[in-house]
């Protein structure tokens, strides 16, 4: 005899997990692309940014441009992995978003409003990736103990 596979109904948890992962992937991709543009601006023309004197974390703006460019490229690559809902991409997404928050905090005096926006978006990405718990085999309705 052959058994016909039955499709399990999607639960609300699965729908939320899929939606939050897609949200995080899109937001991380947007953050990455914008960070790439910010990096290119820092590398190409330093006079785009406001310079602050006596800032403790003062670096060369070209160096900040390279940091943002690398973080942006990594964020875009990881966002493609998030579209595949890979676990490595969730871990890497939280890590990259945390580094984006750190880089934007340290470059806050150079571009204050934009840095705050990027910190907020990256915070939402971290939240979305950490709150998602995809349904595993232990959570499936078929694995639940049945009453006699």
What does this structure look like?
The chain is mainly alpha-helical and 148 residues long. 65% of the residues lie in helices and 0% in strands. It has helices at residues 12-44, 61-83, 87-106, 112-131. Helix 1 (12-44) packs antiparallel against helix 2 and helix 2 packs antiparallel against helix 3 (87-106). The model is unreliable at 138-148 (pLDDT under 50).
Characterize this entry briefly:
The protein is mainly alpha-helical and 148 residues long. It has helices at 12-44, 61-83, 87-106, 112-131. The chain has 4 helices and no strands.
Produce the secondary structure layout:
Layout: H1 12-44, H2 61-83, H3 87-106, H4 112-131
Helix pairs in contact: 1-2, 1-4, 2-3, 3-4
Number of strands: 0
Sheet bearing the most strands, described? none
The residue ranges in which pLDDT falls below 50 over 5 or more consecutive positions are: 138-148
Please provide the ordered H/E string of secondary-structure elements. Answer: HHHH
Rg over CA atoms, rounded to whole Å, is 21 Å
Which overall shape is indicated by the principal axes computed on the Cα atoms? elongated
Helix content: 55-70%
- Please, what is the oligomeric state? single chain
Q: What's the tally of helices?
A: 4
Beta percentage is: under 5%
Structural class: mainly alpha
Instruction: Give the overall pLDDT as a whole number.
Output: 78
Distance between the termini: 27 Å
Provide key terms for this protein:
4 helices; elongated; disordered C terminus; mainly alpha; 148 residues; single chain; 65% helix
């Amino acid at each position: 005899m052959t058994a016909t596979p039955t499709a399990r109904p999607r639960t609300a948890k699965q729908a939320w997990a899929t939606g939050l992962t897609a949200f995080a992937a899109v937001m991380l991709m947007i953050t990455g692309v914008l960070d790439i543009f910010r990096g290119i601006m820092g590398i190409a023309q330093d006079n785009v940014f406001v310079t602050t004197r006596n800032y403790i974390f003062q670096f060369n703006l070209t160096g900040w441009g390279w940091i943002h460019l690398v973080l942006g490229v990594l964020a875009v690559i990881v966002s493609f992995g998030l579209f595949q809902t890979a676990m490595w991409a969730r871990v890497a997404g939280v890590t990259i978003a945390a580094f984006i928050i750190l880089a934007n905090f340290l470059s806050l005096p150079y571009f204050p409003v934009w840095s705050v926006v990027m910190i907020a978006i990256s915070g939402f990405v971290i939240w979305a990736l950490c709150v998602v718990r995809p349904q595993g085999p232990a959570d499936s309705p078929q694995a639940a103990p049945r009453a006699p």
